[in-house]
Specification:
Layout: H1 6-27, H2 32-39, H3 41-57
């Protein structure tokens, strides 16, 4: 029986979310400049969450 550890499950969820996001972005029919801005939004949000977490964990 296949048993996932929590870390493996998190990576699998991020992979599935990434695949879904890539699929949604490739089917979007908008200007390439706007598409490039939208593509980087999750990376920016992730960086903000990470930096905020580091700052709050140091207190």
């Amino acid at each position: 029986m296949l048993i996932f550890k929590p870390k493996q499950l998190a990576w699998a969820m991020f992979l599935l979310l990434g695949l879904g996001y890539f699929s949604a972005m490739s089917h979007l029919e908008i200007n390439y400049f706007l598409k490039s801005l939208i593509v980087f939004m999750p990376i920016q949000v992730g960086a903000i969450v990470y930096v905020t977490y580091l700052r709050w964990s140091d207190r």
